[in-house]
Amino acid sequence: MAITRGAKKAIRVSQRKKVFNDRRAKTMKDTIKSVRQLLVAKNPGEAQKLLSAAYSAIDKARKRGVIKKNTAARKKSRLARAIGKAN
Q: What is the end-to-end Cα distance of the chain in Å, rounded?
């Protein structure tokens, strides 16, 4: 358990940031999942429209440090490749 006043504040701050980071990660995962579900449902046109939202969610997660740079690039690449194969 934190003893000093500064350490206690750091715990509070990190708990607040965790909420935002968890929300950003959840949004990213949900958009990626919805794109993949559209591809499974043989609807690449709709998936293509949703791709920009998925890219945006991935980029926001990357910008805030929720995921690393190469992870973001890999996720975007795999989504684009999956849509390309579906067309």
A: 55
For 15-29, the pLDDT digits (tens) are: 999 999 999 999 999
Extract the tokens encoding 50.
Answer: 């949703």
**Cβ neighbour number for residue 12 with a 10 Å cutoff:** 10
pTM: 0.87
* Cα distances (Å, whole numbers) of residue 52 to 4, 11, 14, 28, 32: 45, 35, 30, 12, 11
| CA–CA gap between residue 41 and residue 77 (Å, rounded) | 20
Structural domain range at position 86: 44-87
Question: What's the structural domain count of the chain?
Answer: 1
